[in-house]
């Protein structure tokens, strides 16, 4: 089949409906390549799909290609877009039919049973290959890469299993890392007392944690950053994370993202040490014999392999993309929007639970924001929910009974507080008017697309029946089925508080007490969008996984978002970069302690 030469521009609809502009190049009657019109980081999920498909489609001149592991949504969307380009170039749709069977891949969430994790210990019937190694690391995000480099530095024979076709995971989007009394801070004239940071974090988690985890993290942070820099990681500046942090301890990665400043350098260093990375290879189950963890079984395109290891580290990135596990924490998942990597399905957590690990999931936090389905939330509109109307401020939050539920400005204390009150309600709604919408648009410096047009289109389409416009508060109440008299009184009382300059309900700051008196009025249902889960597996200060009686499970360690014993319920982002710092610290020290364990076998 001969195609008409040229460059064909198409739009791919990828994960969460985001639009990705592509160029399909046709030369000498054949597809010669695919590229993104936007500059994508090397660790970007969509770039991995584009690069893979560009090679395979150019080689085979067929759209009958397998999806990239961990990227089924993007794979299908990009294939559909490329098909359109082929048709535009004069190709036959029949010859290039896309089969969804080629797009569907292994989905670990289908194996999730919150009442019984024993299937995560099952032995596959057929093993096509066996690998013997000192250490196996499951996952290659921030923690997995730190562990890999530390293992190489210590001379351990190491295998890293990665579900995706590239390293980084959720870690590729991390902006920076926490550190205290580092050389960068000293050069900038910044001095902070560690004990004040530790005390503040303990206060924020209501003293519900073993504070020794914070002491270790804070006191190791400077040495960890020195170690990263020694291994090539690029950090550019240190500040208070644009005012979000309470202390100037946020060290920014090059280009403001780990995909540029951390991932490529750590991967290169691990390669230099001879660490073996097996991509497109998800861990399937844990090997547990003689009351010890002795490695894992993994799934490859050729079949199952067995990785025998003296020690095993789970660094699989948490449970942020597994609705069943998030529901186990008590969150409503009916309208849950996933922002995390599709690969973060809690594999490490489930394998750990299958061997009797201490279950910390219900006490662990999710990195969630509020959003309204009807409103656009992708980056092209610059109307992210955490900075716009769903995140709080001069608005009113009411429950299914029309009662106000919290100080709507709590995000000024911690950006992630916004999702906590709505965990306690059946439904939560945000009430605002056009004046408040205009105020948000002004703060966001939003001019194009037009904010009035965005709001009007959102109300008209009303995706998810989540946003209504009316000329009276009573009509708003009818739209969502809450008591009219209660909502009217709630808004009336709130307006009185605004005029008085005193919030007699929840003591909201005077600057955010803006009366809602003039229409048009709006009410939007608040749902959760989840980026990542932090925690789930119980471990001790050596990052050894423990059981419910705090006894260690020999041979098993947890690092990164799979562990995080220092958090409870909500991520204290006021100490920006602490999760990244924990990932590096736990990855490094899990390996150090694993080596000691191996020496005593």
TrEMBL record:
Alphabetized, the UniProt keywords read: FAD, Flavoprotein, Oxidoreductase
Q: Does the keyword Oxidoreductase apply?
A: yes
What domain of life? Bacteria
Please report the stretch or stretches of sequence annotated as the FMN-binding domain: 14-89
Its cofactor is: FMN; FAD
- Reactions the enzyme catalyzes: dihydrourocanate + A = urocanate + AH2
Identify the SUPFAM superfamilies for this entry. Answer: FAD/NAD(P)-binding domain (SSF51905), Succinate dehydrogenase/fumarate reductase flavoprotein, catalytic domain (SSF56425)
The molecular function GO annotations come to: FMN binding; steroid dehydrogenase activity, acting on the CH-CH group of donors
Q: Which InterPro entries match?
A: FAD-dep_OxRdtase_2_FAD-bd, FAD-oxidoreductase_2, FAD/NAD-bd_sf, FMN-bd, Succ_DH/fumarate_Rdtase_cat_sf
By sequence similarity, the record places it as follows: Belongs to the FAD-dependent oxidoreductase 2 family. FRD/SDH subfamily.
Can you say what this protein is called?
A: Urocanate reductase
Which species is the source of this protein?
Lactobacillus amylolyticus DSM 11664
């Amino acid at each position: 089949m001969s195609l008409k030469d040229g460059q064909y521009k198409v739009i791919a609809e990828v994960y969460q409906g985001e639009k990705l502009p592509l160029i399909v190049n046709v030369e000498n009657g054949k597809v010669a390549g695919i590229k993104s019109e936007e500059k994508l980081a090397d660790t970007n999920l969509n770039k991995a799909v584009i690069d893979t498909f560009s090679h395979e489609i150019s080689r085979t001149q067929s759209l009958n290609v397998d999806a990239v592991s961990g990227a089924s949504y993007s794979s299908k969307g990009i294939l559909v877009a490329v098909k359109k380009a082929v048709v535009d170039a004069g190709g036959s749709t029949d010859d290039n039919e896309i089969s969804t069977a080629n797009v569907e891949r292994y989905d670990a969430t289908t194996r999730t049973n919150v009442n019984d994790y024993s299937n995560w210990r099952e032995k596959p019937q057929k093993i096509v290959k066996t690998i013997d190694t000192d250490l196996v690391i499951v996952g290659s995000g921030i923690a997995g890469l730190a562990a890999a480099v530390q293992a190489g530095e210590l001379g351990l024979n190491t295998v890293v299993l990665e579900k995706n076709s590239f390293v980084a995971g959720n870690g590729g989007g991390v902006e920076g890392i926490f550190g205290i009394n580092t050389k960068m801070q000293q050069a900038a004239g910044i001095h902070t007392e560690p004990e004040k940071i530790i005390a503040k974090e303990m206060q924020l988690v209501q003293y519900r944690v073993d504070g020794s985890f914070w002491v270790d993290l804070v006191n190791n942070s400077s040495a960890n950053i020195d170690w990263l820099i020694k291994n090539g990681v690029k950090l550019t500046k240190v500040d208070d994370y644009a005012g979000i942090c309470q202390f100037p301890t946020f060290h920014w990665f090059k280009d403001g993202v780990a995909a540029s400043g951390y991932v490529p350098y750590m991967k290169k260093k691990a390669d230099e040490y001879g660490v073996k990375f097996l991509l497109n290879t998800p861990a399937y189950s844990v090997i547990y014999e003689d009351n010890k963890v002795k490695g894992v079984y993994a799934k490859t395109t050729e079949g199952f392999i067995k990785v025998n290891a003296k020690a095993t580290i789970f660094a699989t990135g948490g449970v942020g993309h597994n609705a069943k596990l998030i529901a186990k924490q008590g969150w409503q998942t009916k309208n849950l929007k996933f922002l995390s990597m599709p690969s973060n399905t809690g594999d490490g957590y489930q394998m750990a639970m299958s061997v009797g690990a201490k279950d910390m999931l219900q006490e662990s936090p999710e990195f969630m924001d509020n959003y309204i389905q009807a409103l656009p939330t992708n980056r092209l509109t610059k109307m992210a929910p955490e900075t716009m109307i769903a995140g709080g401020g001069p608005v009113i939050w009411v429950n299914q009974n029309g009662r106000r539920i919290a100080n709507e400005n709590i995000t000024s204390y911690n950006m992630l507080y916004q999702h906590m009150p709505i965990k306690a309600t059946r439904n939560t709604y945000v009430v605002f008017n056009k004046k408040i919408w205009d105020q948000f648009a002004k703060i966001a410096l939003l001019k194009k697309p037009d904010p009035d047009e965005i709001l009007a289109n959102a109300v008209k389409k009303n995706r998810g029946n989540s946003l209504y416009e009316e000329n009276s508060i009573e009509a708003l109440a009818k739209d969502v089925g809450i008591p009219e008299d209660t909502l009217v009184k709630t808004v009336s009382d709130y307006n009185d508080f605004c005029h008085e300059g005193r919030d007699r309900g929840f003591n909201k700051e005077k600057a955010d007490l803006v009366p809602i008196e003039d229409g048009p009025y709006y009410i939007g249902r608040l749902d959760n969008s989840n980026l990542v889960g932090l925690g789930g597996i119980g471990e001790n200060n050596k990052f050894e996984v423990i059981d419910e009686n705090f006894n260690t499970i020999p041979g098993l360690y947890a690092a990164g978002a799979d562990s995080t014993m220092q958090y409870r319920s909500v991520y204290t982002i006021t100490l920006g970069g602490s999760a990244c710092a924990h990932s590096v610290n736990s990855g490094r020290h899990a390996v150090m302690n694993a080596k000691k364990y191996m020496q005593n076998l």
